[in-house]
Amino acid sequence: MRRADEFWQTTRKRASDETQNEHSSLSILIAEDSRTQAEQLGFLLEQHGYLVTIAANGKQALEASQAQKPTLIISDIVMPEMDGYELCKAIKSDAKLKDIPVIWSPRFRMRRT
Length: 113
Prior knowledge:
Shape: globular
Strand order of the largest sheet: 1-3-2-4-5
Largest sheet: 5 strands, parallel
Mean pLDDT: 82
């Protein structure tokens, strides 16, 4: 999983050669300011063979998208520096990025039992 910001620099790829499938060429950018939630979603997607990059806010997500165009962006709405609405507007205003689908994923809470 690649992280777009300097704090989450570690790069790892969970899908081994044996588990790679038709999704292995699809890259998903997650824009989420909660590291825990970003890691959970990233883990689930990697288990299905997707390549995942995580950005901690919309500004970093936009920079990561411009550096390497993802297949899909999953974005939180409320984030520091640039929120999900501003990120989507910037993506759709950029001629090179406007065809990337953006899914908004409002923050969810894990239940403790």
